[in-house]
Input
Amino acid sequence: MTTDEPVAESTSVPRRPGRPRDARHDEAILAATLAILRRDGYRGLTIDGVAAEAGVGRPTIYRRWPSKPALVVAALVHAARLAVPDIDTGSLRRDLIAVQRHQVELMNSPDNRRVTAGLVADLAADPDLAETYVSRYLAPRRAAVWQVLRRGVDRGELAADVDFAFAYDLLVGPLFMRAVVWGEPLTADAAEKTADVILAAFAPRS
Amino acid sequence: MTTDEPVAESTSVPRRPGRPRDARHDEAILAATLAILRRDGYRGLTIDGVAAEAGVGRPTIYRRWPSKPALVVAALVHAARLAVPDIDTGSLRRDLIAVQRHQVELMNSPDNRRVTAGLVADLAADPDLAETYVSRYLAPRRAAVWQVLRRGVDRGELAADVDFAFAYDLLVGPLFMRAVVWGEPLTADAAEKTADVILAAFAPRS
Output
C-alpha cells in the first residue's frame, strides 16, 4: 500500500455539483483510510476518524461505502491498482520473483499484519463483504499472477496442466502464514524460494 | 476440534478444595468454549456465555485465563492435543498425506473460518496472546510435522538441507489461504497436492 500522492484539501475547495468534486472526495477519503490503517491498524480505524482526516462529513463517506470494511476494501483496491506492476521479462523465474518481491514488500509493511488480520476476520463474518473483497481485490491480483504463469506454460517452462488456483495459493499462502499468522517478517529470499517451489512443483514433464 | 466427551455438571458437584475440582472445571470450561466456538463463532463467544454453558462463575474462568483470546487458545490447544495423530507409515508421502488430511479436515470444519480469522485478528493486536498461541498451539503442531520431515530426510526421501520452517508454511499456508482467506472449502485432493509439492520442492539431489 503506497499512497504518497497529495490529498485534496476538500474543505477549502468550492462546492460545485458533478463528477470533479466526487472524484476529489473519493481520493481524499481513500487516502485518509490508508493513512489511518498504516498508523492505527484496522481496529483503530473509524468512519469518524476517516471523515476528520479527509475533511468530509460522515454522510459523504456513507453515500459511497456502506460500512467500515467496505471502505477498507475500496482503499486496498485503490492502493493495489497503483502498485501492482505488470511484469514480462521473458523468463518465468524472473517474472515470479518480481511478483513475489512485490508481495513480500506488501506483507512486510509495518501495519500489514494488523490490517490484513482484522480484515480477514470481518470477511469471515460478512459474506457480502467477502464477495466484494474476493471479486475486487483478490481475484484481480490472482489474475495478474495467472498471466505470468500462462506465459510460462506457453514458453514450455511449466507443465501445460498446471493448476493455476493452487499455484497462486502456493505463492501467497506461505507468505501469509509467516507474516500474518506467525507474525514474523519475511526474509529477503522468500521471493526466490516461493518462485522456485512453483518451478519444481509444476515442471514440464519431458 | 473434536470434544464429544461428556462435560461434568460442575454446579452439582460438591465443592472441595484441591486438584480434582480444578480439573473438572478446566474440562467443563474448555468444552463449553469449543461448543460455543462451533455454534456461534469467535465473535459470538463471551466469557459470560462460557460461564453459563460450563455451569461456573466468571471468576472461575478468569482465575485460569485472563481474557477471551487466552481462553480460546487454551481450548484449541486442548482440542489439538486430543486430535493430532502420530503418524509413521515408513513412507514420507503417506505420512505427509495423513498429516495434511487431518489439517484439511480441521480447515473444513464448519466454524473454522470464523474462529481462525477472529483469533488471528486478536493475535495481531495482542503480542502476549500471539506468544501464547505460537508457543502452545502453532509450534507444537509444527514440531509434529517436522518429525515427519526429519524421518523423510533420514530415509533419503528429502534433501538433507530442507528448510523445515518454510516446508511447514508450504504445507499449511495454501490450505489457510483457500479455506480462511478465500473462504472456499478444500477439495478432497488438497492433502495429496500439498504433500507432492514438498516432495518436488525438496527432492534429494542425486
Notes: Confidence is low (pLDDT under 50) at residues 1-20 of chain B. Chain B touches chain A at residues 41-43, 113-114, 116-118, 120-121, 123-125, 130, 134, 138, 163, 166, 169-170, 172-178, 180-183, 193, 196-197, 200-201, 203 (CB under 8 Å). The CA atoms of residues 104 and 175 of chain B lie 7 Å apart.
